[in-house]
Amino acid sequence: KNSSIPNPPRRSYAWMLALAGLIAGGLIVWVFKPEPVPVPSPAKTPQPQTKTSGSFLNPGAASTDYRKYDPSELKGIRAKIEQNLKGQQNTVALYFRDLTNDQWWGINETEVFSPASLMKVPVMIAILKFEDQNPGVLSQTITYEGAREQLYKKPVNAQSPMMPGSSYKVEQLLNIMITASDNEATILLMKFLDQRSPGFRKKVEEELDFRTPAGGGSQKDFVTVRRYSAFFRTLYNASYLSEAMSDKALAILAHSGFGFGIRQAIPPQVRVSHKYGYRQINATSHQYHHFAIVYHSRKPFLLGIMTKGTDPNKLKTQITALAEMIYREVDTQTSGSGGYLERDLE
Length: 346
What we know:
alpha+beta, Beta-lactamase, 2 domains, five-stranded antiparallel β-sheet, 38% helix
């Protein structure tokens, strides 16, 4: 009996072909797919920078001293001084500068005088400038071997407080030179600086626009009251020396031992950085000068007075009287002031 054997089922390759097509198509799409165009992110709005406190203000307004000063303009002082000087036999030159607003005025400001001991201030400035450039100079020592002033001028005005054979630091000599107006200390300091840096003192004078005549400038009439006042202005504003050295110079000047002139006219509780100069030309011709920064609590000011006359005591007294008038006017005019608010509301 014949039995039929069924044929084996045919394998279908259709699904395999379909799968291969999908894979091939995917590869083609992947290979030829264009790069996506980058989409820019939204622009960020600039944020305001945080400023430190007070950065938009007048730089001086942050100072604790700023608010207590009175910047208003002083009125009528010059006219009163000119009236006082009418009929005077002495020659008087005067310079005034309000240090809160830079208002200034002068009387006989082109008259020339002999600076005498006022020349010690530019010597001090030169030494301190040298210290700025060569730190440690003030600590160096110099030996005082004995009086040398008689080699430069006769007669000698005063005996030096220094002891022959003793050594002094440069800073000590600066103090002696200014506070005692000592010529021996001045000679030592000038020699010290000239040996270490020849021409340095002259360079400092030129940078400060101060021209000393050759051969004993302190004894010749060549400086005006306005020109000399620049030394005090540069110290007060620290525009030439560093702040530290400017402050040191004014501190030394505040201890000047001269108690007459401007210092005598100012109440003792008010600080004054000052220097005087005196020169006797002959028995009947004298010069007395005094420059000072007066630290009035509401209106600090710079005052310089230079005089010529026949009687040194009268010259000294006249300087005191003029300074008293000016201080009284400054004090009166600033006693009830509204300060910066009053000025800003004008």
